[in-house]
Design a protein that fits this description.
single chain, 391 residues, alpha+beta, D-amino Acid Aminotransferase, Chain A, domain 1, Dna Ligase, domain 1, six-stranded antiparallel beta sheet
């Protein structure tokens, strides 16, 4: 294998999904680590298409170029604002006006009034610009693409498809594994059939949605509280913990602002835990103790709002069983490289798999690096390990 200073890496950062800013934060840490190790690194933001910024430092310091682009197309939307004003990992109670304000915080109106919606603009921007970006000559000589994207078009199999067609090696799971992991409803079916414990739930599509039928199904199968969330979003965007029946319709409306496919799940009381998998090996379990009691957007991305305990203070047999469950989920959809599997641990110490993150956050304070550190691996060593297993 080549020495570090001979290896050329393209770092994909940003993107057009709702998790753009989170991706840039992860990519900043990854970039610093890669450069520090000695790799030759070029930063590419696929949302910018062929019009890339040549200076990495300037790219991470400003989002001016992306802001100019989306403003030109009639979109002024910051996903972070929507999340901060909206619901978190288990949600908050909200009024209908608050929901509409945070979910459609952009200049212009919706497609019914003659302008494109957020998703329509983002989709159009993504499909064209991502292809233009991947066609750039800088990819010709790259040995590896380090995928620092999050959310749609970054961890749902689409960018992976483009990279495979381009003949480029990349970090993280492949096309099918990423697509399945992003589709929470379908992946849950596979997990369950593979012996992974998952919460009971059902999906509803926007184009055939009947609220009364869905309400009756919730009452019959779960009762309250219940979780309502987009089927294919991350970072808790669009998620609500519904505690009372009269909050259910607003929760559906809110989730449908983020996706045409909504997942409803029974609420699992208990503790929030996660297990990382690196190159087929389960890392120590980590417990998350949010200040709110609910791991929402603020607790995820605001310093001091959550406490992280690794190894998780659980019985050894519980920890080992959770690691086994994580590996089952990881292998069942054909993951490779690295991933993070999130759980709720019931008061009876029964772990329920909530989802698999095929490209988990990689800031220096993210969960994956914390678990790797418990194994004696520094942040730079983790980044280097991901590179080496992907080449």
């Amino acid at each position: 294998m080549k020495n570090s200073d001979q290896i050329k890496i393209i770092l994909l950062a940003g993107g057009a999904a709702s998790e753009r800013e989170i991706s840039k934060q992860s990519s900043r840490g990854i970039y610093d680590a890669l450069v520090g190790i000695g790799y030759k690194v070029a930063v590419i933001d696929p949302a910018l298409g062929a019009g890339q910024l040549n200076e990495a430092e300037k790219y991470f310091e400003t989002d001016e170029k992306w802001g100019e682009y989306v403003a030109h197309h009639g979109l002024m939307y910051k996903a972070n604002d929507a999340a901060k004003n909206g619901n978190g990992a288990q949600g908050n109670n909200r009024t209908n006006s608050q929901i509409k304000k945070s979910a459609t915080n952009y200049t212009g109106t919706n497609s019914q009034n003659g302008k494109e919606t957020i998703d329509e603009i983002r989709s159009r921007v993504s499909f064209k610009n991502y292809i233009d970006a991947i066609k750039l000559p800088v990819f010709d000589e790259a040995d590896l693409v380090f995928n620092g994207l999050h959310g749609r078009w970054g961890e749902d199999g689409q960018i992976q498809s483009l990279l495979q067609l381009r003949g480029k090696k990349y970090t993280g799971p492949g096309v099918l594994a990423c697509a399945l992991a992003m589709d929470k409803g379908k992946s849950k079916i596979i997990y369950k059939n593979s012996g992974v414990i998952v919460p009971n739930g059902f999906n509803r599509l926007k184009n055939s949605f009947n609220f009364d039928e869905s309400r009756r199904k919730v009452l019959k199968e779960f009762g309250f509280p219940v979780i309502v969330k987009p089927n294919d979003e991350g970072s808790t965007f669009g998620l609500t913990l519904v505690e009372k029946e009269d909050q259910l319709e607003e929760a559906f409306n809110f989730a449908f602002e983020f996706s045409d496919n909504v997942l409803v799940e029974e609420y699992i009381a208990g503790r929030e835990l996660t297990v990382g998998v690196l190159d087929g090996e389960a890392l120590p379990a980590l417990e998350i103790r949010p200040k709110h009691g609910l791991y929402d957007f603020e607790c995820k991305y605001t310093g001091g709002m959550s406490e992280y305990l690794v190894p998780a203070p659980v019985d050894e047999e519980v920890s080992q069983f959770m690691q086994q469950q994580a590996l089952l989920a990881y292998n069942s959809i054909g993951c490779s490289g690295y991933a993070r599997i999130d759980f709720r641990l019931s008061p009876e110490n029964k772990p329920y798999c909530l989802e698999l993150n095929s490209l988990p956050g990689m800031t220096k304070t993210s969960l994956m690096p914390k678990m790797a550190k418990e194994k004696g691996m520094s942040y730079s060593e983790l980044v280097d390990k991901i590179v080496r297993i992907s080449l």
